[in-house]
Amino acid sequence: AQSVAQPEDQVNVAEGNPLTVKCTYSVSGNPYLFWYVQYPNRGLQFLLKYITGDNLVKGSYGFEAEFNKSQTSFHLKKPSALVSDSALYFCAVYPGRRALTFGSGTRLQVQP
Amino acid sequence: SQTIHQWPATLVQPVGSPLSLECTVEGTSNPNLYWYRQAAGRGLQLLFYSVGIGQISSEVPQNLSASRPQDRQFILSSKKLLLSDSGFYLCAWSHRAYEQYFGPGTRLTVT
């Protein structure tokens, strides 16, 4: 079965510092990987995706993610965190049918 | 551009009462439609998905049902709510299953 794991329930980072939110995946074949963000009491917003091509994917709001096949990881990164980046982040994989499979989510807290 | 609406935004219902949540999509045709539930502000559980009018696939056996009476309308229902039905319900649409766009959600509290 295709799945993603987010090993951290919460990540704390100071404003202006770089941030990383971790995601590892388990898929057969080539993975389709995604990051979504959810602000309080809101739906999920698409940030970025990896289908094929460059391992470094750039997305919305200055976020990027690095696909690492050897480590089966797809970590979300941002060079300089903002307080407004505080939210719940979901990694997801497309298992080839029906819908996305989401990770359990990581809460990002950026302190001023 | 495409937009997705959900209503109501919040709902408080007693145990045993019926439920109807509505989701509509504008600006596109023949979308795939999805219902997810998010409990305790965490992971998302896929409940139902639909590839066309009247075509519903259920992912988890439960107290809920879904219907798609029109191309861009997706309804989540229950005849009798349970306490465990409380949560944040999200509707999503896509043309390709891996590019999903989510609605604003409905917060359901069963008391």
Describe this structure in words.
The complex is a heterodimer of chains A (112) and B (111). By secondary structure, chain A is mainly beta. Chain A is built from no helices and twelve strands. Chain B has a single domain, classed as Immunoglobulins (Immunoglobulin-like, Sandwich). Chain B contains no helices and eleven strands. In chain B, the strands form two sheets. In chain B, strands 2, 4, 5, 6, 9, 10 and 11 form a seven-stranded mixed sheet that branches. In chain B, strands 1-3-8-7 form a four-stranded antiparallel sheet, with no helix packed on it. Chain B is globular, with a radius of gyration of 13 Å. The chains are: A mainly beta (112), B mainly beta (111). At the A-B interface, strand 6 of A face strand 5, strand 9 and strand 10 of B.
Explain the layout of strands and helices.
The complex is a heterodimer of chains A (112) and B (111).
Chain A lengths: L2 E3 L4 E5 L4 E3 L2 E3 L6 E6 L5 E7 L5 E3 L5 E5 L4 E6 L8 E7 L7 E2 L3 E6 L1
Parallel strand pairs in A: 2-12
Antiparallel strand pairs in A: 1-4, 3-9, 5-6, 5-10, 7-8, 8-9, 10-11, 10-12
Chain B lengths: L2 E5 L2 E4 L5 E8 L5 E7 L5 E9 L2 E4 L6 E6 L2 E6 L8 E8 L6 E2 L3 E5 L1
Parallel strand pairs in B: 2-11
Antiparallel strand pairs in B: 1-3, 3-8, 4-5, 4-9, 5-6, 7-8, 9-10, 9-11
